[in-house]
Design brief:
The chain is mainly α. The protein has 5 helices and no strands. The protein has one domain. It is 78% helix and 0% strand. The N and C termini lie far apart (54 Å).
Length: 96
């Protein structure tokens, strides 16, 4: 494998290894899935306040991470799961 491919692989690994990039990708998936569910699955559109719950969790993560970086709660895995669960809950509550 040429050295240039290894260098680019390291750049991608560093890029996708960032906590904020991981949460941004999850947020994008969350917003797109809620928009699609609002359009095709629910009988009435999902309101603005309910659509703002998963992005609000990402903002909370940024605040918590800025305050205490070494805390166990600052693990991005917890926040990623919380965002995905909140997305499922928002969609599920609007389907009934």
């Amino acid at each position: 494998m040429p050295l240039t491919e290894v260098f680019h692989m390291d750049k991608r690994k560093i890029f996708f290894g960032s906590d904020y990039i991981q949460l941004a990708i999850v947020e994008g998936v969350s917003i797109i899935s809620m928009a699609c569910a609002s359009k095709w699955l629910t009988q009435r559109p999902i309101g603005y306040l309910a659509l703002a719950v998963p992005p609000y969790l990402a903002v909370l993560y940024g605040a918590v991470k800025k305050k205490d970086q070494d805390s166990r709660i600052c693990n991005p895995w917890y926040w990623t799961v919380a965002i995905l669960i909140s997305t499922v809950v928002v969609i599920g509550l609007h389907m009934v």
